[in-house]
Structure formats: structure tokens, C-alpha cells
Amino acid sequence: MNIWRSLLMSTLALPFLAACQTLPSADEILNSDQLYVARGNEPGWILKMDGQTIDYLGNYGETKIKVPAPQGHPSFNGMRYVTDRLTVDVTYASCADGMSGKRFADTVTVLAYGMEYKGCGGRTLPPESLNDTSWTILLMDQLPVIGGVNNEVRFADGKVSGTAGCNRFNGSYSVAGNVLTFGAVASTKMICSEKQMAQEAKFLSLISGPVTTRYTINGNLILADDKGNRITLQQVV
User: Fold this and answer.
1) What letter does residue 49 receive in the DSSP assignment?
2) What is the pTM of this model?
3) 12, 18, 121, 152: most buried by Cβ count inside 10 Å?
């Protein structure tokens, strides 16, 4: 196994990064767990490495460089990949994306045509705190939520609020380690479709007591109660 493959395995590179709308979305790019992606802003750029090639799209798409992937060489707390047109430094130090606010495992520096660009890459890291974060519900007990239905969960200043499919709700929360405890939650009383009401009831039931929290490799948040019920949320940026 070459050094690049070791890097892929050690960073578990399944990230997605927010950047300017002129760049391709992560969903269009990430279709393999063997792909390492980094992005940066001002000007927007994206870099993909798959062990065979390095593909760089810079300056909001105006600069395009694609070269065979060289053998990586260890650098200070990271790896360096040098070609005649492109140099990539991956440093194993956490990085916060300036536009999305998301945190990633690596700080990435790209040298292209004599210009240096900095950004973030590698796996998505959990937020340092739930405070001032917003999420959408992706899964309930491993099943996708109803499409086309608004759902959001926001944490701010010890308060939780949002909608889980029909009614608005709000309440309080506290965090101790990996245990998230919700206080009394109140909600409006609108009537929606049977499926929407069932989805909402399941969510409100889960947050009626303490839940454990953990994060997936791509930064999604999983809430689970002591009965085995679980909800997966994706951070909104």
C-alpha cells in the first residue's frame, strides 16, 4: 500500500465542503469513499485526489489542472504531493471553513502557477458546540424522512426550536458529555397529513427524555434513546 493510500485510510476521507455556488456541489463530486476532497474560498477552488490523479479547479472554475498523482512525501505533521504544475500540502490540523463554518480534519495548501491557496479537507469534524447550530432531519430509525416537508432543529443559548414535519416546537436543552437532555417541549396544534403527524410524533417522543449523541464520519449527528430509537440529522450551513 503506498503512502497515498495510507493517507486515505487514516483520514477516512468522505467529506463534503460548502463553497461558492459556482463550484460543483459535493453530491456531484463525491461518489466514492476512495476520494479525497479539499476546498477553499476567495477565490473558490476545489481539489480532488483519488490516488491516480490530482484534479484542481481554481479561481471559480477558470483554472483547471489535472496531473498524475505523485508519490506523497511526509512533511511536518502531514503529507506533500509535488508535481511540475501543482503542489499540495495536507497538514493534519483541524480547519474551519470560512463560509460554511464546518470543521474538517485537515488544513490544505495548494500552490498553483506560483499562487498559494489555503482551504480545508479530509473528514468532517463535529461542531465544537451544539450552540448556534441548525440541522435538518435525514433519517428516523434508518428510514428517510418525508420528502418536500420542512423540518429543522436549531440549538441556541440553551433553547431548542424547529419543526419535525408539521408543527413548530420549542423547549430547552442541556449537554453533559455525550448526553443531550431536553426540557419540556411545547408545540403548536396544526393538523397535517397522517404521515407528517406520525413523523413529528416520533421525533417529539425521542426528545422527551435524555438521548445520547454521536457523530458520523461525515459530520451527521445521531440522537439515540435507551429504547433503541434513533434520529440522524445533517447540519445546515
Assistant:
1) E
2) 0.66
3) 121
